[in-house]
Write a structure and sequence with these properties.
heterotrimer; A alpha/beta (about 325); B alpha/beta (about 325); C mainly alpha (about 300); A: about 325 residues; Rossmann fold; 8-stranded mixed β-sheet; 4-stranded antiparallel β-sheet; B: about 325 residues
């Protein structure tokens, strides 16, 4: 089966140097110096129809930027995004409109993702009226009620404003707004990170139920490794804007290959186990402004050698479909292989 | 068994907030003990009252909140009777506090060294030189590389994880007998979180300090604490040894939380969710606050709020839990 | 009825009722507004009606002074043209408030649109618009106003000027102060536009204009409301100042400022009331607006929020 969503070599940089005046440096004559954040450095992977692919990584690894590049809130510097074989990243604002209804997004912060001055009804009606111009008012009303029921929010509350709802309910409404245009593909950026433990399970169940009912495809962004393990078919591990490893959930969690994946998985808080037994990484995550040469992970990797410091590892696809970007794995010199 | 006097004894502590709609009780008669060099985890959802409890122990509840009742005994003395002057001598000296955001403790315009020396000199009559020696020693204890150089640096020159280590070093300065840590690793990444938690655990053991760990993360608390108190809607729902809570939770809320963990069901299957959500401060019912979400609820639960009593291996506040040890409920 | 209920149940109203300063200044302001806009209904004299004015009544003192020429028809005395002080003042305040309100509406319209575009679009357009605002701000309001009024009077003569003075003053004061709004709106647009609800609107594919006006604009109205009170007071002051130097409202249709000016020439001759009463009215008006604005700012600023 070919990929439903294909992401090829996405590169995204942010210029944070501010105005012209702040760029000018006087070191050895006058010249302009730009400060650039390298948020994504060529990330590629594919998502099959109806599956859940999760992206995990620590803060600053570029996972949220990736989500926003795929849904085109950001324009990537280079790279391509294909939806069902059709390239969508280079379409004009007008040409992309039909795809806007097929790809939707759910955000992290349930307090910021709903317009505080719009009622639930207005929030949900807007996308329906915009994408389905020929739908009558009463049909649109019915659809608002239907999506509210779908996500478990009483349609009688449609006249209420977001501040009248709890965090979990707002996240349901956020999901309803995405569902209102009948999408096939939903990107969820940390949708449960801001919620309380007892509510997280409710929202995750809602996501899984909707997928089962409507055959939705998910790109799920999260830092919670146990949640990702539970809901994903395949998992992408990212570090500092680069893909480290991409494999099936079972494969990845039982036999991680990339040294960073191993360290990350060992640090998951284990419920009921006393004390700690995680791999300790030396140093801190470097800033994405001055990327390290070679492999982005080499400064903290206990297995880094001369080649890792010099040469950027290419992602290599193995026979079982796993993708790993690591010289050590390629050379077979890591002891756990 | 002869039981020695606990280091910290919280008795029927209540904290209320004066709001427009009247007085709202955020913490409602919370009682627990913490022995010397023991680690107690206080877990609960946001709004359960766990952080407010931490602040109330140090008499740091700010307006419109106030301590509405109860006592806090620390080293045998009632902190409620202390003057503000005496409290200052306890805070940051005998009891240190670590917050989620290191910048709540760190002053951005002073070097780490200046802040550490200042803290020490506020509580001890020692020279600057001696203070610096102690500061250096504590920085080494929290495994900060090249501590001499670090003393002259400002907080913004450190990463989030390093800052939290410095906050821990500052907390250690006066060799307190109790550390209250309020969500100390929530803002940090998993790999850093594990490092910091392990550090805190080891330091408590080495220095014979007691720890009150306030967090929403059950897994983290089970790795660090010896006893766990689960809070729900301003009250303690269950209190017991970590082993008992992990293996045989008694309160339906605790049971629900543990059952809802993703590890408990097969991959890609529905999780065991608890329906509904915790009632907000304004809508606490007269009976058990968990009533609406509870599977075991009975007629009495709606009328009467359950008291925290000893049942089986721990303390639990639930009418429906049966005590099978044969001891009669008092 | 529903709206009334909504207002009385709101936090704003609750907070208002607990602030004696807010209640006091609102009461005074309301009284002044009713008195000035309702002036034709309950004043005995119409200062705009030339036929009722008798130059022989000029400069009569207030009745309580007990002076021989005090006239029981004129409570606060009369002005140099023989008009009743009280009615002229109330009509004058109406003119002042109208100019202030008109100028604020104009300022906010220009400022909000420019601030919204600059904040949302960013880049070169933003730089251009905001530098334009800086340039505008570097000219003082009075300088611009004096220049335009003087040129207008010079070209068209006093007669035409008198006919268009009200509109011209609104235009001049309104145009001089728009950067205040542009800056405020731009700052809050920049804070709002990165919020997730705006990203959600973009993911839906809504056109930029709809996102700007339907989603972002309503969420930037709080600071606009706060500066509007200050700007209103400022505009009234500007008008009074311009009138005082003779570039504002003509004597035939006086504002508070021009009344103060017309009395100023007679202070030396002992006719103090002509300047004093409009002066007091102006101070009370400005003070009540500013105090109400202060309360609103404290209430709406979440950092200062106290129950």
């Amino acid at each position: 089966m070919s990929d439903f969503i294909e992401i090829k070599n996405l590169v995204k940089r942010f210029d944070i140097s501010g105005g012209l005046l702040e760029e000018i440096r006087f070191k050895g004559g006058i010249h302009r110096k730009k400060t650039v954040v390298h948020a994504l450095n060529g990330v590629s992977f594919g998502i099959k129809k109806g599956e859940t692919v999760s992206v995990v990584g620590e803060s600053g690894c570029g996972k949220s930027t990736l989500a926003r590049c795929v849904i085109r809130i950001y324009r990537p510097e280079s790279g391509e995004v294909f939806y069902n074989g059709k390239r969508v990243d280079n379409l004009s604002s007008a040409a992309i409109k039909p795809w806007r209804a097929k790809m939707q997004m759910v955000f992290q912060d349930p307090y910021a993702s709903l317009n505080p001055r719009m009622t639930v009804y207005q929030t949900l009606l807007e996308p329906i009226r915009f994408h389905f111009r020929d739908v009558s008012r009463s049909e649109a009303d019915d659809r608002v009620a239907a999506v509210m029921k779908q996500v478990g929010v009483d349609p009688d509350w449609r006249k209420r404003y977001p501040h009248e709802f709890s965090g979990g309910q707002r996240q349901r409404i956020s999901l309803a707004r995405a569902l209102a245009v009948k999408p096939e593909f939903i990107i969820a950026d940390e949708p449960i990170a801001a919620l309380d433990v007892s509510i997280q399970a409710q929202i995750l169940n809602l996501f899984m139920d909707l997928q089962a009912e409507q055959g939705l495809t998910y790109l799920f962004i999260s830092h919670d490794l146990s949640v990702v393990e539970h809901i994903s078919n395949r998992v992408v591990v990212m570090y500092l804007g680069s893909l480290c490893e991409f494999a099936g959930t079972e494969q990845l969690y039982t036999a991680p290959k990339h040294p960073y994946t191993r360290a990350l998985l060992s640090a998951i808080p284990q419920f009921g186990s006393e004390g700690f037994n995680h791999m300790r990484l030396p140093g801190d995550v470097p800033t994405p402004i001055n990327l390290p040469s070679g492999c982005v992970f080499h400064g903290r990797c206990p297995h880094a050698d001369e080649r890792c410091r010099r040469e950027i590892p290419a992602p290599i696809t193995e026979a079982d479909g796993r993708v790993v970007a690591c010289h050590g794995v390629e050379e077979g010199r890591l002891e756990w292989l | 068994m002869q039981k020695q006097e606990p280091l910290l004894s919280v008795r029927e502590l209540s904290v209320a907030f004066k709001m427009r709609g009247g007085v709202l009780t955020a913490v409602d008669g919370v009682s627990f003990d913490l022995d010397r060099s023991q680690r107690l985890g206080l877990v609960g959802e946001s709004g359960a009252g766990k952080s407010v409890t931490g602040f109330a122990i140090l008499n740091l509840v700010s307006r419109p909140g106030y301590i509405a009742g109860g006592h806090v005994f620390f080293e045998g003395r009632d902190l409620a009777t202390f003057s503000e002057e005496e409290m200052r001598n306890i805070r940051g000296n005998r009891i240190s506090m670590i917050f989620q955001d290191p910048m709540m403790t760190l002053n951005p315009v002073l070097t780490i060294g200046q802040q550490m020396v200042e803290t020490l000199k506020a509580h001890r009559h020692i020279s600057k030189h001696e203070a610096e020696k102690i500061a250096l020693n504590k920085l080494q204890k929290v495994a900060i590389p090249s501590p001499e150089k670090r003393l002259t640096q400002y907080p913004h020159e450190f990463s989030g994880g390093m800052r939290q280590r410095i906050v821990i070093a500052i907390a250690l300065l006066t060799s307190p007998s109790l550390i209250i840590a309020d969500e100390p690793t929530t803002a940090l990444d998993v790999t850093i979180q594990a490092d910091i938690m392990e550090l805190l655990l080891n330091l408590c053991e080495e220095e014979k300090m007691a720890l009150l760990l306030i967090t929403h993360d059950l897994a983290v608390v089970s790795q660090v604490a010896e006893r766990i108190a689960v809070m729900y809607a301003g009250r303690i729902a269950e209190l017991g040894s970590t082993e008992a809570i992990v293996n045989a939770p008694q309160h339906p809320y605790t049971q629900g939380l543990l059952k809802a963990l993703p590890q408990k069901v097969e991959r890609r299957k529905r999780l065991n969710q608890i329906p509904g959500s915790m009632p907000s401060l304004q809508e606490r019912p007269p009976g058990c606050a968990f009533y609406d979400r509870c599977e075991l609820r009975g007629e009495i639960c709606h009328r009467e709020s359950p008291r925290l009593v000893e049942k089986n291996a721990g303390l639990v506040a639930c009418h429906m839990v049966k005590d099978t040890t044969g001891k009669e409920e008092k | 009825m529903k709206l009334f209920k909504k207002i009385t149940a709101s936090n704003l109203f609750y907070n208002f009722l607990r602030d004696p300063m807010a209640i006091g200044s609102a009461t005074v302001l309301l009284f002044l507004l009713v008195a000035s806009f309702g002036a034709p209904l309950f004043t005995s004299h119409n200062p705009y009606d030339q036929t009722t004015i008798d130059i022989m009544d000029a400069e009569l003192p207030p009745i309580w002074t007990g002076a021989a020429d005090a006239d029981s028809r004129f409570l606060l005395g009369t002005d140099p043209q023989g008009r009743d002080m009280l009615s002229t003042m109330l009509y004058g305040m109406r003119v002042s408030v109208l100019i202030g309100a008109g100028a604020v509406v104009l300022q906010s319209l220009i400022g909000i649109i420019i601030g919204l575009i600059a904040g949302y679009k960013g880049g070169r357009l933003e730089a251009l618009l905001m530098r334009l605002a800086d340039v505008q701000l570097s000219f003082s309001t009075y300088m611009v106003a004096i220049f335009i009024s003087a040129v207008f009077q010079g070209i068209f003569g006093m007669g035409v000027y008198s006919d268009y003075a009200l509109g011209l003053l609104i235009l001049v004061i309104g145009f001089a102060e728009w950067p205040q709004y542009a800056r405020t709106v731009r700052a809050s647009v920049m804070a709002e536009k990165n919020k997730e609800y705006v990203e959600a609107a973009r993911v839906i594919g809504l056109p930029q204009r709809r996102i700007m006006f339907r989603h972002i604009l309503p969420n930037t109205m709080t600071p606009v409301l706060v500066i509007s009170t200050v700007q209103m007071a400022n505009a009234i002051m500007s008008e009074a100042a311009l009138s005082f130097i003779g570039l504002g409202m003509p004597p035939s249709q006086p504002s508070l400022g021009s009344l103060i000016k017309s009395g100023f020439d007679y202070i030396a001759s002992g006719s103090w009331w002509i300047s004093l009463f409009p002066g007091i009215a102006l101070v009370v008006l400005i003070l009540s607006i500013n105090l109400l604005g202060d309360w609103l700012r404290d209430y709406l600023n979440p950092k200062l929020y106290k129950d």
